[in-house]
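Hi all, posting the design record for the shared folder.

TITLE: backbone redesign
STEP: 1 of 1
STRUCTURE INPUT:
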C-alpha cells in the first residue's frame, strides 16, 4: 500500500521530509561539491511499508538531477532503492566505495566533534 505524501526540501536541515500522521519522515543528505551524499532515511515503524521512504528518495534524486549533481548513496535503503530502480540513476552516480566512505563522511561532517561517532557508525555499517 502506498500513501501519497507531500515531500518538501528543508535545505537548512539538509533533508527531504514529509509529515505523515503528525510524524516526521526524512531523507538526510550532505552536499559535498557537486555530490549529493544521501546519508540516512527514517520512517517511523508504524508508517513503514507504505512507500514513504521511496517518495523521499525520489524527491532527492529529482533534486540532484535538476542540479546536475552526482548521487553518492551512503544510506543502505538508498543503495537498495537505486539498485531496484536503475532507470532513475544518472550515468555518473557512484556505487558506494567502501574504501573512501569514512573519508567522505568525515569531509561531510558539519562539526569536527561528530567525526568519531560518524566514523564508528560507518565502520560498523560497512564492515560489520
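Okay, here is what came back for every position:
SEQUENCE:
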Amino acid at each position: 500500500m502506498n500513501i501519497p505524501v507531500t515531500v518538501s526540501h528543508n535545505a537548512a536541515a539538509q533533508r527531504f521530509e514529509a509529515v505523515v500522521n503528525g510524524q516526521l519522515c526524512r531523507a538526510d543528505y550532505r552536499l559535498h561539491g557537486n555530490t549529493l551524499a544521501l546519508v540516512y532515511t527514517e520512517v517511523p515503524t508504524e508508517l513503514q511499508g507504505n512507500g514513504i521512504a521511496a517518495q523521499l528518495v525520489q524527491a532527492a534524486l529529482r533534486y540532484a538531477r535538476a542540479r546536475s549533481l552526482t548521487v553518492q548513496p551512503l544510506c543502505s535503503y538508498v543503495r537498495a532503492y537505486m539498485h531496484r530502480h536503475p532507470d532513475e540513476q544518472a550515468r555518473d552516480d557512484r556505487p558506494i566505495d567502501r574504501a573512501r566512505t569514512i573519508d567522505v563522511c568525515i569531509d561531510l561532517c558539519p562539526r569536527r566533534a561528530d567525526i568519531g561517532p560518524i566514523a564508528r557508525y560507518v565502520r560498523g555499517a560497512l564492515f560489520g
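COMMENT: The two ends are 33 Å apart (CA to CA).
Let me know if anyone wants the other runs.
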